[in-house]
Amino acid sequence: MNHCTVTWWPDARDELARLWVEGPSRQQIAEAADEIDRVLAVDPEASAEPGPEGLWRLTLRPLTVQFALEEPDRKVIVVTVRLQAD
């Protein structure tokens, strides 16, 4: 399995920073974001589910991301991030 390159759209990166500053647990958010990067780099389809408009969705509490997968280039682009509702 070829590893993927993971990038975040600027809006998603900004939202992650906002969630980290304002969220309930900075440590949990940072750990989830790091794990999301690791999972998406290794095998994005294995842990995610297809979503609308060709995007994929991955939840690693407390975060949920939507991402696009550019298959020929093995590039993953995180488009949105939000706190998972309890």
Please describe what this structure looks like.
The protein is an alpha+beta fold and 86 residues long. It has three helices and five strands. A five-stranded mixed β-sheet has the order 1-5-4-3-2. Helix 1 packs antiparallel against helix 2. The chain starts with a strand and ends with a strand.
From the structure above, extract its key features.
86 residues, 40% helix, 5-stranded mixed β-sheet
Low confidence ranges: none
Shape: globular
Strand element count? 5
Question: CA-to-CA gap between the ends?
Answer: 34 Å
Structural class: alpha+beta
The helix/strand order is EHHHEEEE
Which strand order does the major sheet show? 1-5-4-3-2
Strand content: 25-35%
Mean pLDDT: 94
What would you say about this model in short?
The chain is of the alpha+beta class and 86 residues long.
How do the helices and strands line up, and which of them pair or pack?
Layout lengths: L4 E4 L1 H13 L3 H17 L1 H4 L1 E2 L5 E5 L2 E8 L4 E9 L3
Parallel strand pairs: 1-5
Antiparallel strand pairs: 2-3, 3-4, 4-5
